[in-house]
Amino acid sequence: MDSNTTSRLEAGRTPETVPDVTAAMLQQVIETSLSGICIVDRQGCIAFANASLLAMWGYDLSEVVGKPVTRLWLSPEEGRDCIDRALFAGQWTGTVAARRRDASSFPSRITLSTVRDPETADVWLLLSCIEADAKRKDAPGRRCSLEQAVAAMPARFMDTAGIDPAIDDSLEDLGRACGACRVYLALFNDPRTLLGATHEWCRAGQAPLRGESRNLFKGDPPRWVVRVLEGETVIVNGVSGDGRPERGEREFLERHGATAALMIPLRLNGAAVGFFGFDMDGDGARFADEDVALLSAAVHIIAGAIDRKQSEYVFRESEGLYQIVLDAITDTVTVVDTRLTLLLANDAFIAWCEDLGLETNVVGKDLFAVVPFLPPATRQLYERVIRTGRSLTSERSIRSGDRTMILREMRIPIFEHGEVARVVTVARDVTAQREVEDLKSKAYAQIERNMEQFALLADHIRNPLQAIMGRAELLDDAETTEKIRQQVQRINGIIDQLDERWGESRRLSMFWRKYS
């Protein structure tokens, strides 16, 4: 690793907030894991730590967030060396001398894994650990192996796209660590009348049961099935609680070729949808309470990953529906998060970008990087919507090269957990509309001027006619005077008709202004 990378990991700056996507993926895993887990940002500082790690080291969360992760080591130099190895190889596992808050030391088994932020591709670190007290003689080797298997699981389920191979690998590690001959995931169908194994690891010589289905009598299912469906962890050894043989359990063990079995319910959305089974075939085989606790933690980790996978599927289905609706809208529509990163854009926005010669692959990019000519006032408008939580409508002129556009925009906040998480922007290019409106205004103004001039001209015509009529009445020729009088009256009649037409035109002009 180069010196720049080392200096970044040694830096003690306050870390950036864990990305929303990463936090959502890890939340259930880190909260339910019995292993100590912390997330290390790209500067080498602790961004988050779960309760197990804090208890192990004796810290409060506020005391470690933003601090270099190397403070967890007794020797910071050893910590930097472990980090270098993890960054170089992608993962590192080993036992280190850890330093508690009270300056005491203890051995800790640590696994460091590199994780890429799906938004920025930055490399983060996931640290998973368990206490490995070399002086403790009462911890059997099998339990240590099981602890290590559970501690290595969170990093394996970071990417839900590879959840199936991650489950298979985890079942194998857990089976070998706890001494089982078979480990599997069995799921009930919706009516709970069928049970089938979807994932399985079995020791060599064991007949696989994966893919087989078992009919369950809905009216009278085996007692262990009822207990699993009620969310209870069940240990099957062929004997009921009062010491008498239990037929359903014996048949189950015979079918699996086992002498004891452990079934831990898989709960999704509050209901048991199946269970993880662990079979043993040795004489006197039993599951210790400590092993059951560790295996339950492993099941919680897998359940969290499955739940995230289902949530992502539902989100993608909803996102696809939203995209269809957005693409049917002729106005440009965009959705940005609070950092102004584009999350969705409809076809109209893409076509607008293409028309302006801009980037068309816009999702996941900064709005101002996609539309670089947006004025600084645009950022202020978004900040105002995010801060106030109120919609905002604006109309402004922007310039791209030699082209000037007038955009009318409405920004609508979208809330999550009481806070603005996204902003939907609906925009329309009203340049042509404004040009037409300007032409209309100019035309109406010219018509008004013409009508005013016409009214003045009518008055200017009547005044000379009155003078002509007065002069004609002074003539001694009555016949000529009468002819002049008739022509003056004729002209006055024409002017009266023009006045009526002027009034009608005035009313029509007012109607156009009001309703056009």
TrEMBL record:
InterPro entries, alphabetized: GAF, GAF-like_dom_sf, HisK_dim/P_dom, HisK_dim/P_sf, PAS, PAS-like_dom_sf, PAS_4
Keywords recorded for this protein, A-Z: Kinase, Transferase
Keyword Kinase appears in the UniProt entry: yes
Transmembrane segments: none
SUPFAM superfamilies the UniProt entry points to: GAF domain-like (SSF55781), Homodimeric domain of signal transducing histidine kinase (SSF47384), PYP-like sensor domain (PAS domain) (SSF55785)
The PAS domain, residue ranges: 22-78
Mitochondrion in keyword set: no
UniProt cross-references to SMART domains, sorted A to Z: GAF, HisKA, PAS
GO MF annotation, one: phosphorelay sensor kinase activity
Domain of life: Archaea
NCBIfam families, alphabetized: sensory_box
Gene3D superfamilies: 1.10.287.130, 3.30.450.40, PAS domain (3.30.450.20)
The protein, known as: Histidine kinase
Pfam families: GAF (PF01590), HisKA (PF00512), PAS_4 (PF08448), PAS_9 (PF13426)
